Amino acid sequence: MGYTIPIGPYHPSLEEPIHAKLYTEGEVIKDAEVFIGYNHRGIEKLATERNFIQTLTLVERVCGICSHSHPFAYAMAIENIAQMEVPKRGQYIRVIMAELERLHSHYLWIGLACHLIGYDSLFMYVWDARERIMDILEEISGNRVNYGMVIIGGSRRDIDDEKRKKILNMLDDLIEPHNRMKDIFLNDKTAALRTKGVGVLPKDVAERMGTIGPHARASGVNVDVRKDAPYSCYDEFDFNVPVLNEGDVWARVVVRVLEIEESIKIIKQALENLPEGPINLGNKLPKVPAGEFTARHEAPRGQVVYYVVTDGGQTNYRISIHVPTFKTAPTVPYMLKNNTIADAGLIIASIDPCFSCLDR
Amino acid sequence: MQEFKSFEIKKEEIVPLAKKMKENGHRLVMIHGFVDKEGKHVVNYQYEVGNCIESYTVKGEDTLPSISEIYDVAASWPEEELYELMGVKFEGLNMRGRLFLPDTMLEGQGHILVTPLDELRKKTLKEGE
Questions:
Q1: Chain B partners of A229 at a C-beta cutoff of 8 Å?
Q2: Would you say residue B115 has pLDDT above 80?
Q3: Which of A163, A340, A353, A358 is the most buried (most CB within 10 A)?
Q4: What are phi and psi of A162, to 5 degrees?
Q5: How many angstroms separate the CA of residue B12 from the nearest CA in chain A?
Q6: Distance, in angstroms, between A33 CA and closest chain B CA?
Q7: Domain map of chain A by residue range?
Q8: How many CA atoms lie within 13 A of A264 on its CB side?
């Protein structure tokens, strides 16, 4: 006999509000639906009443985890319309912040995955490692989230030599806990039993559904806007894009573990070659002509897309924000099918969802 | 560096273009929309072609053909969103009900991109009473 089991929108196994309906037979999920929209704040509408500097503050609050990615992408769109060239040092600082954000975001999700499989000691171990990054982010910007580091035309705050050394030391200290965590996920039976073969998304389905980010890369789809359409100064760094073919929850964890190592490589290169010079073009309200541009940034969860239309005035005529979860959440019903109810929370969480981002 | 190219197309060209893009392996990045100063709908189909976003714009249409048969959920979710935010209808789209907005804001009562903020605020206050 079949049952329909509702999960959420508010449920202990969910990171953020989403409503899922599971159509089950016994313990097995035969079909599923997901419903979003519990965090809709009308941010795109509000942005049409803000000037370009005020909008940076607004879009930074689209998401608490990738709060650097949003102003980064928005600023790139405005800078392209206004044909402004960001000073090199400003570009490097933006990239350093973006990659530090990727580190803490990936550790956050890996920790949650450990918690959801009942491996709470590893959860606390991973989050302890994450705290070192949060401390550095606070050291650089004054905040643990919503860093306020992006302005139109560059970065707001500099990274001086003292901070540069602190970041490099922190990255060195991260190696030991990172390697231990990596070893557990690659070799530990407990982690493998709860994640291997669970919530599989094959490559052809991932491509058909147009999914992106680490979620797609764990299913064999090599897509990363830092390589596919380089922006800012990403083309100056040597790094790889890890791709796995398993497509299960295990692959989604491991691909993030490997991405952390690539991000550390990028941050080290940026810090060691930090150019001299100004960090921005001044913090004045820019004159932006009428125009349109779509800017993309590879946020921790995948591509953030900002389509901005201006009319020559001081406010945005339209901004359209699309976030990775918009492309990963639709894959959840497919992944849930033929898995057990006990794995539903883990599978939903395995896309590293950000429903605040998604709903805007 | 990232590039952006914009083209204007007619409604009849949407589906053939989507088929061609799909055959050539180009991703549908997003379908964006807004209402221009004359009150007409503007819908952009944005594809990733190398390091460039090619944006194909259709202006002044209230009903468009759905490309969800071609691009699956990568198209159907943006199409549902555009219906909710600005009332553009997509022929052939299997609507699931609501995506982002409360049920009370569907069926012409919401469409927040085309409703002035002061009217939306009055509506929210009224519902909260």
A1: 2, 48, 50-52
A2: no
A3: A358
A4: -65, -45
A5: 24
A6: 10
A7: 42-330
A8: 19
Q: Is A78 helix (H, G, I), strand (E, B) or coil?
A: helix
| Residues constituting chain B | 129
Architecture of the domain delimited by A42-330:
Orthogonal Bundle (1.10)
pLDDT for B100: 75
- Burial tier of A314 (Cβ tally within 10 Å: 0-12, 13-18, 19+): middle
Residues paired with residue A297 on neighbouring β-strands, in sequence order: A304
Place of tokens 């952390």: A260
What is the rounded distance in angstroms from the CA atom of residue A316 to the CA atom of residue B36? Answer: 13
CA–CA separation, B2 and A232 (whole Å): 9
Question: Between B33, B76, B100, which is nearest A37 by CB?
Answer: B100
Q: Is the ipTM of this complex over 0.90?
A: no
Give the Cα separation of A69 and A78 in Å (integer): 15
Q: Give the chain B residue nearest A42 (alpha carbons).
A: B112
Q: Is B93 on the interface with A (CB under 8 A)?
A: no
Look at residue A95 and give its three-state secondary structure: helix
> What are the extents of the domains in chain B?
3-128
The answer to whether the beta carbons of residues A127 and A108 sit under 8 Å apart is: yes
Residue A232 and residue A270 in contact, taking contact as beta carbons nearer than 8 Å: no
